[in-house]
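Sorry to interrupt, but I need a hand with the structure work. Could you write out one complete protein record for me, on any chain you like? Could you add the entry underneath, on a fresh line?
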Amino acid sequence: MLKEFVEYVTKHLVDDPSRVVVEIKSEEEKKIVFALRVGQEDIGKVIGKEGKTAQAIRTLLTAIAAKAGKRAILEILD
């Protein structure tokens, strides 16, 4: 559910949704680390001015994960 959320939000932000890749980097009992890759030309759209878009995605992801009793971390890779 968390992975699908990140994919959904990111695909609606970028110009080329086919290049959005969300992978589970590591998963423990209470912690999940996601790695997000987008096309080079779309990285600015995902990060946003002063990182505000990325922070908003992370905040929503944290809230959704907390409902499931987990901690989620999102890494944006270039």
